Amino acid sequence: MITFADRLREEIAYSGLTRKELAHHANIKQRALDMYVGKQASMPPADVAVRLAKTLNVTVEYLVSGEKTAHEQQHLLQHQQKLGEELETLSAPTKKFIETTIHLFSEYEKKQVLSASKEIAIETV
Q1: Model confidence, pTM
Q2: How many folded domains does the chain comprise?
């Protein structure tokens, strides 16, 4: 089961911020942040969770439950639909190139986030 701490570690890795930078931007002590992402992960108070979410540009709901809000999902669907429509106007070779490029970047970033998430987990041990 993916926990608050897991999602927080993933979002920290994805953001490119160090834990020290995140703590500074969210106006919390790094030691507190370490408790939220560590092996014995604890849930932060609501006000801290809000500051962390804002700094990471996600919702508290996402950090806590892993679910996106209906508004976020609708926005994502509209964006994907627009991209799909634009992709359909391109030639077949260009479409294939873009699809391959997206796939490669997606796989690369998944590996980067996983690697960074593991490093954060190791740092907290």
Answers
A1: 0.61
A2: 1
